[in-house]
UniProtKB/TrEMBL annotation, chains A, B:
This is Ribonuclease 3. Its cofactor is Mg(2+). It comes from Zeimonas arvi. Residues 210-223 have a biased composition (Low complexity). Residues 210-247 are annotated as: Disordered. Mg(2+) binds at residues 38, 111, 114.
């Protein structure tokens, strides 16, 4: 296992290479594996991402910060970073996991990446882990829209309409299909003012409403010109009393 | 507001005293308040407690570590520490909150303590926050029983019985009272081998079972001598490959 290139990509050279190997070892391979390191890395990651968001978005309230954080540390975000640094070719998996394509499974890759963060923390302390995480997350953070990331379609549609002083959409179930245990719902989302009527379907009323809201938002955005960016700049501005200290 | 004594008790002297004042300011008092600092402090606290647990319990798996962590960072644990350091006399609250006894409210005290952790982090970085949190949590950690903390009564009873090779308890609903929207359940928990039959009641079947399990465990422990401590020592032992680095 040539780990030089990986250490370059994660921005940390290990004093104790055994820690890195442990972080790359799935439980299916045996002991020691990355399960405890993942526990540790998860909380280090949470802390570093919280710090980044706190400093970057000086005017977002704690609810918005929490929403952004949970979206940046969730499996999909970790999986995308793991793919970027080619983590799958370094994993140690048991026979069965290997055969079933475990080295491409998002959960396994995300866990291993968290394990690496925990391993860096043990190898060289918080500042080293912070440095590596910040470097890997910078491109992610740059692409974050703090006003929309992690919000569901119904919320986004509602906020879009409210910001244009338009009345709220009306949802109604137009049909249900199938037996009780495998029902499908069809829901209409109507915005009469914009002459929009679209359908969404799903295994629950809620899921069908979200689908309809997504289509309605697309239709509404196509029908009306985009608004100028207002709040993005505000959210970015640091405020007095919240100035970051040197880490 | 004399903050000298408080800074002594939390083990950190602020360079920027405005940060400490902000941490002590509830949103009812105005701006700047501690809501954003609380977001930051919550994640710093999570990270430090995870580290303490990882190092202290070298053989606990990640599930047990997560259970312990969530119990140590929850509102009640923070509230008890806040009381120990007399936090309530330093809070800045709005008129209404003051009149309704807000300075004694567990949620307000817990949030302010998290705000203080965030403020220390901004004032002097991670090591300073870690030092303060470790000092405040040391007495808490010493009293933790990793085998029981945060487990519900049914789980504890089941584990107690299994460790003695005794058969599992039997739960049965013996009565329900009241109308549909305000029902009360009465559940019996029976351990025939120990001749134990006790009742528990609650607003749900689940709650009633937990109540009955609690009583059954008390009765069982009274009926049988305590087992020698086995797993506590094992959970404490550090393992190779997990050795902590200097923080």
């Amino acid at each position: 296992m040539d780990l030089d290139r990986l250490q370059q990509l994660i921005g940390h050279r290990f004093d104790d290479a055994a820690l890195l190997r442990q972080a790359l070892t799935h439980r299916s391979f045996g002991q020691p594996n990355n399960e405890r390191l993942e526990f540790l890395g998860d909380s280090v990651l949470n802390c570093v991402v919280a710090t980044m968001l706190y400093r970057h978005f000086g005017r977002l309230d704690e609810g918005d910060l929490s929403r952004l954080r949970s979206n940046l540390v969730k499996q999909q975000a970790l999986y995308e970073i793991a793919q970027r640094i080619g983590l799958s070719e370094h994993l140690q998996l048991g026979e069965g996991e290997l055969r079933s394509g475990g080295h491409r499974r998002p959960s396994i890759l995300a866990d291993a990446l968290e394990g690496i963060f925990g391993a860096i923390f043990l190898d060289a302390g918080f500042p080293a882990a912070e440095k590596a995480i910040v470097a890997l997350y910078e491109p992610v953070l740059r692409s974050v829209d703090p006003l929309t990331l992690g919000k569901d379609a119904k919320t986004l549609l509602q906020e879009w309409l409210q910001s244009r002083k338009l009345p709220l959409p009306v949802y109604s179930v137009v049909a249900t299909h199938g037996a009780a245990h495998s029902q499908m719902f069809e829901v209409e989302c109507a915005i009469p003012k914009l002459q929009i009527r679209v359908l969404g379907s799903g295994a629950s009323r809620r899921a069908a409403e979200q689908g309809a809201a997504r289509r309605a938002l697309e239709a509404a955005q196509a029908a009306m010109p985009p608004e100028r960016k207002r709040s993005r700049a505000r959210a970015d501005a640091p405020v007095r009393g919240d100035a970051p200290a040197a880490a």
